[in-house]
Structures are given as C-alpha cells and as structure tokens.
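Title: Prediction job returns without error message
Component: structure pipeline
Severity: low
Priority: P3
Assignee: unassigned

Description:
Job completed but the reporter wants confirmation the result is attached to the right record. Sequence as submitted:
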Amino acid sequence: MSKLSAAQRGKIRRLSQPKELSPDEEGGELNIVPFLDIIVNILIFVLATVAVTFTSTIETTPPAIGGGGVRSAAKKDALNLTVIVVSAGFSIKASGGNVAPGCSGRGNGISIPKKGQRYDYQGLQKCVHRLKGSNPAFADESQFKLSANPGIEYQVIINVIDALRSTPDGKGVLFDNVSFTMAK
C-alpha cells in the first residue's frame, strides 16, 4: 500500500469533519415542539371553557286526544285537577270549577297567591291535599294537569311537581303523574 500525499490527507480530514448545516438545509428532522405548544394551548383553552351540564328527567305521560289522559274516561266522579302557574300565583281548577282564593270553595281569581315575591308551594300543597280529601272517590287519582304562562321559570314548574308529589306531612302520595297542558 502506498502512502497518501499531504493533499490527499488534507482532503480526507476535511471531508471527515462534521460540518455545520445552514438553517435551510437541516438534517431531515422535523421540529414538532412549536406544533405541540399550540396543541397544548388549545387543549387547555377547550378544557377551561367547557360548561358542565347536569340534566335530570321527570317521567310524564302525554295527554290523550280529547283530554282523557291516563284517567278513565268512564269515571264521572273525578277531581280532574288542573294547576295553572301565573305570575301572581297558582290558579287551581277542578271538575267542580275554579277554586276560590284561599282554597275556600268555588270562585274566580288566583287560588293561591304569591307570598311577597315567592310562590307559596306549601299553600298549594295544603289546598290540593284538602281538595283530594274532600271526596273518597278522589283518593285513587294520581294525575294532575299542569300549565304555565309564558315566562314562568322552569324551576317553578319543577317545584310545583315536587310540592304535589307528596302530602304535607310527607307520608303519603298526592299526585305522582303529571300531564302538561296548554292554557286556553
């Protein structure tokens, strides 16, 4: 084997040395750090702005055509309770007609007015309990109709359903079947 000349040795030394690459000709590696920064920022933003929503359901039976609902149409002696929620309180109707203010017989007007700015759910519960107990034939009824004027908050509707679900002492069931109607 022959010895290399000085020029050959210099060229080999020059070619074997690592050289600095210019920014436009990087060695084929993809820099994904900026991309990951953007993804992490978007992920944090999405997690921070997601609203958590809790929902619940209430089992109801839609009214049948003609308003018969779940109740037997052949039953003549029925309470047929309807509660209408208005901005001034509760208007109650039964098969005997409108219930008078204070739940004291028949009459027109708001049966259970608001107490100040709040709806009187206990007064409603006591009045309905008294109506249901007024005739032994009403004892097996479990459905009432509920209607509300536009603008009534959803929570008020839920509170009415809760109030009419059990007796004032909490030991019995008043009406556990709700039928939503439209006020005429």
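Comment from assignee: result matches the submitted record. Confidence is low (pLDDT under 50) at residues 65-74.
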